[in-house]
Amino acid sequence: MKRIVLTLATILISASIFAQDFQGVATYKSKRKLGLNIKMDSTQVDSGMQDLVMEQLKKQFEKTYLLTFNREESIYKEDEKLGAPQPAGVRVMVMTPGGADVLYKNTKEGRFTNQNESFSKLFLIKDELEKLDWKLGSETKNIGEYTCYKATLKREVEVRESSMTINENRDSEEDGDRVPEMKEITITAWYTTQIPVNNGPGNYYGLPGLILEVNDGTETVICSKIVLNPKNKVAIAEPKKGKEVTQEKYNAIIEKKMKEMEEQYHRPGKDGHRIEFRIGG
Predict the structure, then answer these.
(1) What's the CA gap between 201 and 210, in Å, rounded?
(2) What residue ranges in 33-180 does DSSP mark as E strands?
(3) Distance (Å, rounded) from C-alpha 99 to C-alpha 93?
(4) How does pLDDT run across 121-144, given as a tens digit for each residue?
(5) Pairing of strands 90-95, 210-215
(6) Contacts of residue 260, Cβ cutoff 8 Å, sequence gap at least 6
(7) Using an 8 Å Cβ cutoff, are 185 and 155 in contact?
């Protein structure tokens, strides 16, 4: 009898969710595990510099995102807030191979549009969504009030590991900077069938319920709040402005620009310690 009651409750919830003009807003928070080895020149840099650098890097990767979704579409973007200024004399520059300023996904049509401002130029990346070969598991856990199920995904990614030496009177040096190599990682996602929409944070989708948590071994993105059918509707509009390119073309542009930035920031600085950190690619 309990199972029958639970099934009926699930059906009623699903029917309510899929009412006309259904919409939801999910808030996600991201955290990244830092594996950077920073070497300090003790004759030039005070002992507290490394802790300061790591703290600044940690703040760079702790962000809040909003996913506004309906049954077929979504907009994913950072919930930008004014951050604390960096301490005088220290600049932490984080270079990534391109994030998403405004990411539109259409899961029904299997495509995405990513409006991204990189190096003072607005791009409109349009391409097909990657087909994700999820393996569904039976393990469950609760995230807030939602029962979530585990799913895993194997993926080949490019990995570059490096360490850095920070010296006040010369460039930051990347000791033992390695050639990028391919590595298989396991991505773990937790989704809830209580919100039966084929969507999730970032480029993740393809499960029989909203993805509330995803971890790729380095970064964790977890949902902290969900509002279903908010009173103030938010338009889910596909971005239109920007130079239209494919994902492959955009990656090539960003790679070239990042190499130019690396060369520029390896020159001797005149404004104190400058720390450069690169993720992926």
Answers:
(1) 9
(2) 37-40, 63-69, 73-78, 90-95, 102-106, 111-118, 121-128, 135-143, 146-159, 163-166, 173-175
(3) 15
(4) 999 999 999 999 999 999 999 999
(5) unpaired
(6) none
(7) yes
